[in-house]
Amino acid sequence: MSEKIRLTAKIIAILLMLTTISVTAGGAPEQYVYGGF
Amino acid sequence: MAVFASMSFVLVVAASYIAVQLPVAARRSTLFGYVNLVALLVLFGWRATVSVGAVALLYWAVLALLTTHSGKRVHVVLGRLVPAVLYGSVAVLFVLHKMVLEPGNQFSGLVGLSELSTIAAVPAISHGFELLQLLAFSYVALRIVDAIRAVLAGERLLDLPAFFGYLVPFFMTPSGPINEYEEHVAMDEVVREQPTLTSFVDSLYLIVLGYFLKFTCAQSLALIVRGLSDPWPVGSVSDTAIFLFFVLMEFSGYSLIAYGVGQLLGLPTPMNFNKPWRATSFADFWTRWHMSLGSFVRRTMYFPMRISLSRLLRPDRDERLKIHAINTIALLTPFAFVGVWHRFSVIFLLWGLAVGTVVALETIIREELPRSASAWLPNWASKAIVPVYSVGLVVLTLHIAMQDFSR
After folding, report:
1. Over pLDDT 70: what percentage of chain B?
2. Interface test with A, best of B206, B219, B343, B405 (most A CBs within 10 A)
3. Are residues A14 and B202, on separate chains, in Cβ contact within 8 Å?
4. With left for phi above 0 and alpha for psi between -120 and 50, is residue B93 left, alpha or beta?
5. Which of B257, B156, B249, B248 is CA-nearest to residue B205?
6. pLDDT recorded at residue B232
7. Which of B137, B175, B196, B201 could covalently link to B132 via disulfide, CB atoms 3.0 to 4.6 Å apart?
8. Would you list the DSSP string of B191-231?
9. More confident position, B103 or B407
10. pLDDT band for position B370 (cuts 50, 70, 90)
11. Does B211 lie at the interface with A, CB-CB under 8 angstroms?
12. Are B322 and B315 in contact (CB under 8 A)?
């Protein structure tokens, strides 16, 4: 896999993950975002 | 732990990325020290920064005094006393911090610790440690120990801003990892590589993956299992197995964010996880899980203790019992420490001892049996059974400690 394809794949993955994070955690109650063990 | 979830953190990382590229005539560790100081002030406020800065200044001044006089003849008693006092003082600070953090702990009635418990209840001291806890003092204390160990062994003492930057790196405050003092010093000897699009995207990918693991995967699982505010269920072993999976996602998420920011800023930041589900033994699991803590206890506790005991007892090569006894004691001590470091309770102390005992038993079996247990099995069976055994045993030992998490 060429460097250009690898970078493009990573950029797409970053955008997809950011979209998912904003949908799942964006604007969620504080306990949901901050909660840990 | 909330700092990663704030927009301020993202902006501080972006500003730090620009700042560390500045062409200034200063060591990399010093430049980061100043950048980090500003980052701490922005993210945690001046009170917490000044509190932890005072602790850093105290230890830096003592180490500076010691290194200044290192070429001179120091009385042999003094030479042994100073490390003991330094390490002892960190232990006292750590216990005080635990007393404040976990006031109802089961050790506060013990001789010596009850006095510390009384001191910890003094409002001014209690408030001071609450400020230190904003910057995860349990990690700072471990870095102080590592700095003392390295400097007393002859490593260069960083200047004060750089020393502060090593002890309290802003992006490692929520959950580590524990960076090694020598690696932080060594970055001054290496010319920083010019940032490229590839290195930027690679670092950004790690950071976003960390956020995804923590804030989407781990939190979604937690929401399904326990809802918004219920305690984690601890009744069965399967509850513990799910909890272990949750911790893997959450903790590796935090660690990846820190690792990615470290890569972005060109700072030595250790990896904390290496596919623990592929462990080839119970002991191997603990070299793949929270690796920076494992590495810390190996270099500061296990190896020094094993070497000291071996020098004291001088076992011959055929005195297997003595050799195994030395190794077992050297193993149990760091694991017991790891137990109470996680939580200051008898249950966690027992958990640490249980883990250490199994690791010691595995070592004895591996060294005394002519062939390893897995060698008796066909390759496919070994590949299938060994991870189940390793992770299964981790779940069973963790189940001991789980009752404490429900409190």
Report:
1. 95
2. B219
3. no
4. alpha
5. B257
6. 82
7. B137
8. PPPPP-HHHHHHHHHHHHHHHIIIIIIIHHHHHHHHTTTPP
9. B103
10. low
11. yes
12. yes
Interface contact B215, partner A, CB < 8 A: yes
> What rounded mean pLDDT belongs to chain B?
90
The CA distance from B163 to B29, in Å, is 8
Name the DSSP letter for residue B108: T
Contacts of B374 (CB under 8 A, 6+ apart): B280, B382, B385, B386
pLDDT at A36: 46
User: What's the pLDDT tens digit per position in B120-149?
Assistant: 889 999 999 888 888 889 999 999 999 999
- What does the block give as tokens for B6? 């704030």
Does B319 contact chain A (CB < 8 Å)? Answer: no
Q: What is the pLDDT of residue B91?
A: 95
Q: Measure B198 CA to nearest chain A CA, in Å.
A: 7
Structure tokens of B159?
A: 């200047």
**Which of A4, A21, A23 should we substitute to test contact with B (largest number of B Cβ atoms within 10 Å)?**
A21
Q: Rounded to a whole number, what is the distance in Å from the CA of B170 to chain A's nearest CA?
A: 18
Residue A16 contacts B, CB cutoff 8 Å: no
∠ CA B219-B220-B223 to the nearest 5 degrees?
85
Q: Which two tokens stand for residue B140?
A: 């700072």
Residue B224 neighbours by CB distance under 10 Å: 9
Residues of chain A neighbouring B204 (CB-CB closer than 8 A): 14
CA B69 to the chain's CA centroid: 31
Contact flag B212-A7 (C-beta cutoff 8 Å) = no
Is residue B375 within 8 Å of residue B335, measured between CB atoms? Answer: no
Residue B173 makes CB contacts below 8 A (sequence gap 6+) with: B3, B44, B135, B136, B139
Residue B76 has pLDDT above 60, yes or no: no
- Token digits of residue A29: 């109650």
pLDDT tens-digit readout, B259-276 = 999 999 999 999 999 999
- Say how far apart CA B15 and CA B41 lie, in whole Å: 14
| Structure ipTM | 0.87
In this prediction, residue A18 carries a pLDDT of 94
Residue B405 with chain A: CB contacts under 8 Å: 37
Q: Which of B145, B129, B168, B163 is nearest to B344 (CA)?
A: B129
Chain A contact set for B246 (CB, 8 A): 37
Residues from chain A contacting residue B198 (CB–CB below 8 Å) = 3, 7
Give, for all 37 residues of chain A, the pLDDT tens digit: 688 999 999 999 999 999 999 888 876 665 555 544 4
